Fold this sequence. Notes:
The chain is an alpha+beta fold. 23% of the residues lie in helices and 24% in strands. The chain has helices spanning 5-11, 17-25, 57-61, 121-128, 148-156, 193-199, 232-241, 247-252, 260-267, and strands at residues 3-4, 29-31, 34-35, 41-42, 48-50, 53-54, 67-72, 102-104, 112-118, 136-143, 158-160, 163-165, 169-172, 179-186, 204-213, 216-217, 227-229.
Amino acid sequence: MAERIQKVLARAGYGSRRQVEAWIKEGRVSCNGETASLGDQISEGDRLRLDNKPLSPKRLWQQPQQVILYNKPMGEVCTRRDPEGRRTIFQSLPKPEQGRWVSVGRLDLNTSGLIILTTDGELANRLMHPANEMDREYAVRVLGDVSKEMMQTLRDGVMLDDGEAKFNDIQEAGGDGANKWFHVVIQEGRNREVRRLWESQGVQVSRLMRVRYGPIIMPQNLRIGHWTKLEGGDLDYLYEQAGMKPQSSAKRGAPSAKSPQSQANAKKDSGSKKAASPYKGKQTSAEKPGRRPRIRGR
Length: 298
């Protein structure tokens, strides 16, 4: 089946769709000896070159699509190389079987928590694209008095330097004295957005951790600075939530993946119960109104 060049190269992890489209416009991509144009489609057997270097057909068409979850500590940066010599998250990751790791969003130097990484550039693009409205849930410790009126203001939206922003949900999560914990949800990836929203109300963030991205909740047993593979039904479910064909179906022509919880129930022994997967999936539009909170990562 023919596919657009930018989709194939992004899926293989060469770059984002926007990057690949820019390369095509600059004349850096060729197909079968001819300079590629935006809108060109390719199939297996076509010979692709980037900057006149041949691209591996195995990586383009046959590579396994891997996804890992990483629990980022504070003090690491999300770039591949840091001019200041700081440690990057990629120094803690395994080498992929094919391609390279693409980070689904970033966390700043002083933010810890969940980062999803994949060799599938198309999956990363779907998870990050604003149109897909993927929740990003954070646990945040705030120094200062937080009133009910302030929480409602943050839900309604405030004007920041780069435009209006808001929390799609905010819930109290305990704490003593001047430091209080909250769980908040945003659907954007703007720089330091969670911190800037709180600072707009005159309070300071003293700790910030991402605990969920879309359908994926940070596993409780994933230690800081460690990673784990996402496999089986959980991997298929992530693809479904991103609006893509599950990997097991793509390989075997199998029917659509069931949710991880359904798979767990199907596999359990008649006399024993098996813990359901924490990956519950993104809420449907029917669940979004105030009848049910969006907070899932507590």
